[in-house]
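Before any further analysis, we paired sequence with structure tokens, yielding the entry below:
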Amino acid sequence: MKKTLRIAGREFAATVFTKAFLLGLVLPPVMMLCVFALLPILMNAASPKVKGHVSVIDRTGVVAPKILDAFTPEKLAARMAEKAKKVMEELPAPQAAKDMAKTNTGMIAKAAEAKAPSLTVQSLPVTSDPEKVKDEIRRTGDKAKNAEGDDPCLALAVIPAESLKADKDGVFGSFDFFVAPKLDVEVQSDIQRQIGRAIVDARIETNGMDVAKVRAITDAPKVEAKSVTSSGDKNINDAVKILVPGAFMFLLWIATFACGQQLLTSTIEEKSSRVMEVLLSAVSPMELLTGKILGQMAVGLMMMFLYSGAGLAALVFKNMGDIVALTNLLYLFVYFVIAFFMIASLMAAIGSAVSDIREAQSLLGPIMIVLVIPMMLWLPILRNPNSMFSQVVSFLPPISPFVMVLRISGSEPVPAWQIPATIVLGFVYVGVALWAASKVFRIGVLMYGKPPNFRTLLRWIRMA
């Protein structure tokens, strides 16, 4: 045991006390902080304004004036300011920051006015040929932004008379809309929305109803949902509720595979440089394998403590600490131990069987295809954690720990028996993985020449 711990300490020190590891540990959170700090500045930076006109062929005779009114400079700026205000209110920021944003409406409006597109509406005669207008749109090209001294045609709306008349089934007609290929997506959406709103207003008027009254009746009421917690009512942030479980799984993934990859690399390097033969003259293959795995697991645990601690501190700072239950953090570390031993056993076995990293990639390929399943399906699993698929993959190695971390943090409580069952079964898988890895390690660590395939590795397990 003493030799095993000494090897574990050597593996830990060889990994942690290097410039590359320290940079890799510190740079990701620093880069994320910089991105979050710079994002508001970059988003508010003056960008090239969209400049041009929207052509309208209105065959109803009543919709075009409403579209013209919707695209006055004042109303364009007002819509931009309202959108910016809504974004500020939905940000996962402390309430004090949101209150400050509400009080600075003038500043928000001024910034929105500076970014508002310079759009005009040209109402064309009803006899106009849409194909000629589309030719004008084709000539716009890259002039959708910063078109100096020009007024390019950015879009064309053809509104037929049927858009105000319902058929025998009560269905109204639609309108045709054509845009320049490089028109800003947000501007395009705003144009479509305002034209659609103008058509609906015209329908209301033609049916003898008051537009403002109907709009007031049909507008959905604004609601601010709050979650009821032991420390009081708190605002709900749906994005954070989805991202936190995903962050748990990605943290587990990063810590497991970063250290597993390091174990694979160090094993291949020691075998290629014949250092492994010197080590085996002093310790047994099982002691060497166990020591290397324990050393890298200590590195992974350190990463987990640092990153999860930083994330939890950020949530507490933003008054959202109740989103993460302490029991979930405990389960995160338990499932990390299970996941790491399974992945590390595979990495150590493959590293001992090959002589360079290129040979290892061919063996790792099929394993990685299986291991990316939780990454690809984490949203469906999170939305429906107790579906048949989620429950089945919770018991399948080696993805069981990753799926369970998602399910425990999901929208429904996991059946009580499944958590201890997956933990016990996970440690059984760990025992099998360590046993198989030790068999391969004992033979492969001193084997050179042609790299083995999976059939050869299975034969080694039976022989050793």
User: Anything to note?
Assistant: The beta strands are 51-58, 118-124, 153-159, 176-179, 226-229, 232-235. The CA atoms of residues 260 and 456 lie 22 Å apart.
